[in-house]
Amino acid sequence: MRYVFGNWKMNGTLAFAEEYVNKLLGEVRPASVQVALFPPFTALSSFQYLVKDSFLKFGAQNMYYEDSGAFTGEVSPVMLKEIGVDYVLIGHSERRHIFLENDEMLMKKVEAAHRHDIPVVFCVGETLEERRTGATKDVLKRQLILVQDILSTGDIVAYEPVWAIGTGVTPTMDEIRESISWVKELLKADLPVLYGGSVNKGNAVDISEVSGVDGVLVGGASLKVEEFAIIIKAFDQNI
Ligand code: PGA
Fold first, then answer.
1. Which pTM was predicted?
2. CA-CA-CA-CA torsion for 32, 183, 120, 224, nearest 10 degrees?
3. Nearest CA to ligand 1 atom 6
4. Within 13 Å of residue 80, how many CA atoms lie on the same side as its CB?
5. What's the number of CA atoms in the CB half-sphere (13 Å) around residue 117?
6. Out of 92, 101, 130, 227, which one is annotated catalytic?
7. CA 68/CA 203 separation, integer angstroms
8. Selection from 117, 133, 45, 140 nearest residue 83 by Cα
9. Which residue of the set 94, 126, 160, 227 is catalytic?
10. What are the C-alpha distances in Å from 109 to residues 79, 82, 102?
């Protein structure tokens, strides 16, 4: 099984979601790829109806680690469970860098998701500075150290170098292979590891051929349904 996941970030109205999902369901019928979309919270609850009885899965881009309480602006695992999410993204680089979520907080989020049986897509990745100074392996190790024992069957890890996210720049295929194999070495369980960062219809086939890559987490290119369909087909063919 391979995975093509689309993270819409802070994009996509309800109307956009409805049109997109209908188009995608008409366009692809993947045989060996699991496809999931991560819309913003406002569109998320409509996904339980939009994707009903289809191959399409859906998840949240973030959540807080308490079940309820005085946490203005946050969404809890109980709320996500109620609408039937298949996954929750934890530790996306934008959460780490813009919203200053640290390794400890991310561990609490993983534990909270597990308490409610929500599988996580746990994201890791080095900055350009860290890559330049040769710290990539150490950084990935640090980001995984608190969760490597608790990530378990059903969870997924996404390797997303920060400098490749939204920039149009990707690592070489060798660099992707090396980092993914290091992540797999660090994990205690045998989990799928995805690559993320400027995946598009032009590089999807090459990335799908890199050994160890179990799929992709797509940002910008997942907002264009035709392009996302091409990426799904690239992974469906190269199994
Ligand atoms: P990008 O984002 O594909 O736009 O680079 C990937 C991500 O942030 O998951």
1. 0.97
2. -60
3. 219
4. 33
5. 3
6. 92
7. 42
8. 45
9. 160
10. 14, 17, 11
Which atom of ligand 1 is closest in space to residue 7's alpha carbon?
9
Cβ neighbours of residue 223 under 8 Å, at least 6 residues apart? 6, 8, 11, 12
Which numbered atom of ligand 1 lies nearest the CA of 199? 3
Helix or strand run (H / E) with residue 51 = none
Nearest CA to ligand 1 atom 9: 219
Residue type, 235: F
d(CA 107, CA 231): 31
Task: Compute the Cα dihedral for 175, 181, 187, 189 and give only its sign.
Answer: positive
Please tell me the distance between residue 69's alpha carbon and the centre of ligand 1 in angstroms. Answer: 32
Question: Tens digits of per-residue pLDDT, 70-88?
Answer: 999 999 999 999 999 999 9
pLDDT tens track for 126-139: 999 999 999 999 99
Report the candidate in 61, 64, 173, 175 with the shortest Cα–Cα distance to residue 125: 175
DSSP character at residue 174:
H
Residue that the structure tokens 């100074």 belong to: 133
Q: Indicate if the alpha-carbon torsion angle 186, 139, 194, 82 is positive or negative.
A: positive
Residues of the chain with pLDDT under 70: 238-239
